Every structure is written in structure tokens, then in C-alpha cells.
């Protein structure tokens, strides 16, 4: 890309800031019209709620703003590439996206989209696409080399279903072929693919693995989302909750950059909201099964006791593990509850447990809804926690960029 073309890209930054989501909304509509088969690969819930178009608009803007040195985006691109690997995205699909995106720029921007501008954006897109293709090629190769691992989709049988709360079920997934399964880092996820009758589509979703590694099965714990009709958001969780023991689903091998550091001896502060506790459970069980038993602070917030999954397991573990300290925040307290140091009325407030969480060289992990993550991240910074020691996992398209 020559300097003149880079200047043309930078000249579109004001348009992307003002109308980026209009462009990406048009792009997705155009692409699905011309390639309806891709609806089976995209999360149609995030299409309906607008999160996917927002994430793409942010990504296109960030790329334009950093066109002089796209390498500064490699951390974000690696996260995207990791999800793409879990969804089995292939190089030829970048060609489809490129064709549809450049056509959309021309049609949405109108007369301002000169042939020179469209040529510049074509070169820019395929430059980015090649970065992603090369990155993902390495991820596929690395994944294939792991014992028990696989690329693409593999069938697993649901052999056990456990009701963990009024809205969360755990699914124990065993490989249908009976062969070895891949190990994973605590905090990682798998992609699940199921057929959603209401959409007449296959749909993928990512779910955190909610236990430490077991060589026989994977466990995911899924919240049944409510109030979805007619929005497709939550239809996969409803489909999963309707499954019975013995049913078969397809999953990808474990992936994800949000996980415990290997062999780290640093104290852990695990902060979760709602179903965001799932990767934290894997981290907690891994610590329990290790010889290190690192000092761990468990902080969890949810609406009330009835939706609080795994509360009995955490309570039992706390009684036997001297290294574990817990704080539970309920929006609404039950009559039998009394406010204490461990059960706190209200939303998660880290200042209320700051004396316990400010540990030397602790690692802080946050998972939950977007606003929850932002609030806890900001609270940690206000408590003078070093930014490099804070890690977070956002379910769905990446809209947060705090680091």
C-alpha cells in the first residue's frame, strides 16, 4: 500500500466514526442476501441485537486509524483469530467478506467512493485478511498438534445434565467416537453447534468450560436466556436446555486467550457476574487440584439466591480450603439471609472487600456482562491495581478494549 492510498484510508475515518454501523449493517444484509449459507456460521442473535455490527464497525475504524502500523492491533487480531479457529473459518471466506465489504462501501458512501478510494480499501482489506489467514493457519497447525485435539466440528454425546440453579444447567459432553480429547487451560471455551428449529439454521455459540480438565468429558454450564421472542438471541441456550441425556451435539476443540497463566504462583482474585462464573469455576477447580493452592478470593454477584449456581459447591470448598475466601453480592436478599462479610446486599462493589483483594502481585480475572466488566475494571484501577495484572473475558463479539 503506497502513501497516497494510506491517506485515502485515513480520510474515511470521520465517515467511519459517524456512520460505521450504518455501513456494517448494510454489509451484513448484503452478504447474507448473496450468501445465505453463511447464516449458518454467524451468530444470528448478535446480528439481531446489533452487537456484531458494532464490533465490526469498531474493528474497521481501528484498522483505518492504525493503517500506518497495523501491527499494534495484533493482540486484538489474535483474539479474533482464536474465535475464528474455533468456528472453522477458512481463507476462501475472507474473499466473500472482502467482495461484499468493498461493494458496501461503494454503495453506502456513494459519490465520495471514488475508484481510487475503493482500490485503496480493497488493498487494505486484503492486507488485513492475509494477516488473519496467516495467523489462523498457525493456530490451526498448533491446535492439530495437540494430543486429542481436532480442527472443525466433532460430535459429542450429552451423557449427563445437572440443574445448577433455576436458569443454569450443566452439560457433560463425551466424545461420540470414544477417542482422546484435548486438554485445555482453565478459563478457555469451546464452540457449540446446534440446529435451531425456529431459525431453520445451524447456529454456533461459545461457552466457557466450567470445570478443570477431565480426560473423559468436557463440561459447560449454560444459562437459559429469557424474554427472547422474536429475537434470536438466546435461542441456542433454549435449544440446549431442551436437550436430553443421550442427545448429540457438535463442538470445536478448546480455545481462548482468557485463562490462568501456566505454573503461576500468584494469588488469584476471581470476579464474576451471573453466568460469568463459569470460567472462574474451572480456575478454582484447577487451583484445588494443584499442589500450589494459591490464595484465592472468589467474588460473585447475581440477582438472588435462586439464580446463584454452584453456591453449595463453593460453600463446601470454602469450609475445607484455607486458601479460599468468598464474597457474594445479591441484588435481593432472601428473608433467611443476614448481611455479613460474606453475603452482601447490592451489586458487586470491590471497595467493600478491598482489604482482602489487594494482594501483592495478584492476578485479577473478570467475567460477566459488558457493563459489569467495565465497572469492575475501573474499580480495580481506582484501587491502584496494576493494569497488566487485570484480565477479562467478554462473552460474544468484542466490544470492550480496556487494555
Can you give keywords for this protein?
6-stranded antiparallel sheet; alpha/beta
Would you write up a description of this structure?
The structure is a single chain. By secondary structure, the chain is an alpha/beta fold. The protein has twelve helices and twelve strands. It has helices spanning 3-11, 13-34, 44-49, 51-65, 74-86, 91-109, 115-144, 235-241, 278-289, 311-320, 354-357, 370-382; strands at 154-163, 168-175, 189-196, 201-208, 218-223, 248-251, 268-273, 296-302, 324-330, 343-345, 363-368, 390-394. A hairpin with a 4-residue loop joins strand 1 (154-163) and strand 2. Helix 1 (3-11) packs across helix 7 (115-144), helix 2 (13-34) packs across helix 4 (51-65) and helix 2 (13-34) crosses helix 6. The longest helix is centred in the first third of the chain and has 30 residues, at 115-144. The protein is globular, with a radius of gyration of 22 Å. The two termini are 29 Å apart.
List the topology elements:
Blueprint lengths: L2 H9 L1 H22 L9 H6 L1 H15 L8 H13 L4 H19 L5 H30 L9 E10 L4 E8 L13 E8 L4 E8 L9 E6 L11 H7 L6 E4 L16 E6 L4 H12 L6 E7 L8 H10 L3 E7 L12 E3 L8 H4 L5 E6 L1 H13 L7 E5 L9
Parallel strand pairs: 7-8, 7-11, 8-9, 9-10, 11-12
Antiparallel strand pairs: 1-2, 1-6, 2-5, 3-4, 3-6
Helix pairs in contact: 1-7, 2-4, 2-6, 5-7, 6-7
Amino acid at each position: 500500500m503506497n502513501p497516497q492510498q494510506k491517506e485515502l484510508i485515513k480520510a474515511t475515518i470521520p465517515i467511519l466514526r459517524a456512520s460505521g454501523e450504518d455501513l456494517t449493517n448494510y454489509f451484513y444484509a448484503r452478504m447474507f442476501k448473496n450468501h445465505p449459507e453463511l447464516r449458518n456460521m454467524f451468530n444470528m442473535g448478535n446480528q439481531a441485537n446489533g452487537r456484531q455490527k458494532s464490533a465490526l464497525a469498531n474493528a474497521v475504524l481501528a484498522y483505518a486509524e492504525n493503517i500506518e502500523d497495523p501491527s499494534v492491533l495484533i493482540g486484538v487480531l489474535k483474539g479474533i483469530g482464536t474465535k475464528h479457529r474455533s468456528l472453522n473459518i477458512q481463507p476462501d471466506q475472507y474473499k466473500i467478506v472482502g467482495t461484499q465489504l468493498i461493494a458496501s462501501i461503494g454503495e453506502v458512501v456513494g459519490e465520495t467512493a471514488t475508484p481510487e478510494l475503493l482500490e485503496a480499501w480493497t488493498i487494505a482489506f486484503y492486507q488485513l485478511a492475509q494477516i488473519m489467514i496467516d495467523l489462523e493457519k498457525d493456530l490451526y497447525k498448533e491446535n492439530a498438534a495437540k494430543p486429542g485435539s481436532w480442527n472443525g466440528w466433532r460430535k459429542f454425546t450429552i451423557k449427563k445434565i445437572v440443574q445448577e440453579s433455576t436458569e443454569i444447567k450443566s452439560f457433560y459432553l463425551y466424545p461420540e467416537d470414544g477417542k482422546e480429547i484435548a486438554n485445555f487451560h482453565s478459563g478457555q471455551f469451546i464452540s457449540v453447534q446446534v440446529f435451531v428449529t425456529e431459525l431453520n439454521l445451524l447456529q454456533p455459540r461459545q461457552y466457557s468450560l466450567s470445570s478443570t480438565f477431565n480426560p473423559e468429558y468436557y463440561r459447560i454450564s449454560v444459562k437459559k436466556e429469557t424474554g427472547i421472542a422474536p429475537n434470536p438471541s438466546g435461542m441456542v441456550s433454549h435449544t440446549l436446555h431442551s436437550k436430553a441425556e443421550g442427545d448429540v451435539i457438535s463442538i470445536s476443540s478448546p480455545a481462548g486467550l482468557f485463562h490462568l497463566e501456566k505454573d503461576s504462583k500468584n494469588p488469584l482474585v476471581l470476579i464474576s457476574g451471573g453466568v460469568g462464573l463459569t470460567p472462574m469455576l474451572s480456575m478454582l477447580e484447577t487451583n484445588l487440584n494443584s499442589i500450589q493452592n494459591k490464595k484465592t478470593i472468589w467474588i460473585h454477584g447475581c440477582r438472588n439466591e435462586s439464580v446463584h449456581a454452584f453456591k453449595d459447591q463453593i460453600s463446601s470448598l470454602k469450609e475445607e480450603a484455607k486458601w479460599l475466601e468468598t464474597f457474594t453480592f445479591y441484588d435481593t436478599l432472601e428473608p433467611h439471609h443476614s448481611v455479613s462479610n460474606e453475603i452482601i446486599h447490592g451489586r458487586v462493589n470491590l471497595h467493600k472487600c478491598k482489604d482482602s483483594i489487594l494482594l501483592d502481585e495478584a492476578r485479577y480475572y473478570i467475567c460477566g456482562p459488558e457493563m459489569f466488566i467495565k465497572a469492575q475494571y475501573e474499580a480495580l484501577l481506582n484501587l491502584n491495581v496494576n493494569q497488566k495484572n487485570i484480565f477479562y473475558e467478554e462473552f460474544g463479539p468484542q466490544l470492550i478494549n480496556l487494555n
